[in-house]
Amino acid sequence: MRLTSLMGFLADDLAVDLGTANTLVYVRGHGIVLNEPSIVAMKDGTVLAAGHEAKAMLGRAPGSISVVRPLRHGVIADFDSTEKMLHYFIAKTRQRKTLAHPRVVVTVPSGITQVEKRAVRQSARQAGAREAFLIEEPIAAALGAGLPVADPGANMIVDIGGGTTEVAVMSLSGIVYCKSVRIAGDEMNAAVIQHIRKSYSLLVGERQAEDIKLTLGSAYPIPGEHLTMEVKGRDLIVGIPKTILVTGEEIREALREPVMAIVSAVHTCLEQIPPELAADIVDKGIVVSGGGACLRGLGALLHDQTGLPIRISDDPLTCVVRGAGALLDDVTLLARVALPS
């Protein structure tokens, strides 16, 4: 057996969904072994914590500890922090101590630049990867949702992550058309913060805004539902802590602008594709994946706006990493869909 083949046999190959909000790691033969927030806490250049432990420090750490989200809009904003976070997560997931370095498949937004590609590849290699393959998120999401991307028919997916929304039509293992917009979960959180600040003169943090979005947020009115939630924050007028009551209806209205921007991206994609592929989508409909797919009523809104069948993928939060993980067992398809160096 050749040395390269032996090293490949010994290594635990990985697929990484390096997301703005969460990083997920899939180990070949073991499935998803890590799902943690893309947050790292460092002191004097040393990683103190990453993932859930670092998120618990967000907004609470002393000045000597920096708690950062190193990815913005799906790409690396802080190279050093990303490299350290990725190294931490990969080391955490490698069960066996072997000399072999793994192959790593990393998912990236479709609109990624050459500079950003180099940064992701270098981060993966510095973190211990033998080889680093970059896969566009829409293809990974489609594979994770069980769509036949290698077939000649069209498949359309809307992947709503933390930093970017990818709207893509695929055929024959390639992307025919893709619209990538930097509006997704983070923009929704920012819209919630802005609404509460403007309506109640109350300042809330990112973590609480996300909780409000998950508890009350919706994209479409849900009959008979009248949700409310107590929200605590700092009164911007008198400067002391205060509690208010927020309703689901006002949060839906606060989310309207980012949600309709995603709907607009779907319309743009549908307008740009060839008529033969458009006919396929009329029959097959649109699949929605990513954390944003969990927003209640989103499927109903997309159906109302497009008239097409809408399907929310099974376990939308893990759809991308499961699709990337499937490529570890299909070397031929991996070679076809991986981005060139």
Provide a descriptive summary of the structure in words.
The protein is an alpha+beta fold. The strands form five sheets. Strands 3-2-1-9-10 form a five-stranded mixed β-sheet, with helices on both faces. A five-stranded mixed β-sheet has the order 13-12-11-17-18, with helices on both faces. A three-stranded antiparallel β-sheet has the order 5-4-6. The two termini are 28 Å apart. It has 13 helices and 18 strands. It has helices at 3-10, 52-57, 79-93, 114-126, 137-144, 185-200, 206-216, 248-254, 256-272, 275-284, 298-306, 319-327, 331-337; strands at residues 14-18, 22-27, 31-37, 40-43, 46-50, 66-68, 71-72, 75-76, 103-108, 131-136, 155-160, 165-171, 174-181, 202-203, 228-235, 241-247, 286-289, 310-312. It is flat and about 60 Å long. It folds into three domains: 3-139 and 320-337, 2-Layer Sandwich (Nucleotidyltransferase, domain 5), CATH 3.30.420.40; 148-183 and 257-316, 2-Layer Sandwich (Nucleotidyltransferase, domain 5), CATH 3.30.420; 185-255, Alpha-Beta Complex (Actin, Chain A, domain 4), CATH 3.90.640.10. 45% of the residues are buried. Strand 17 (286-289), helix 11 (298-306) and strand 18 form a beta-alpha-beta unit.
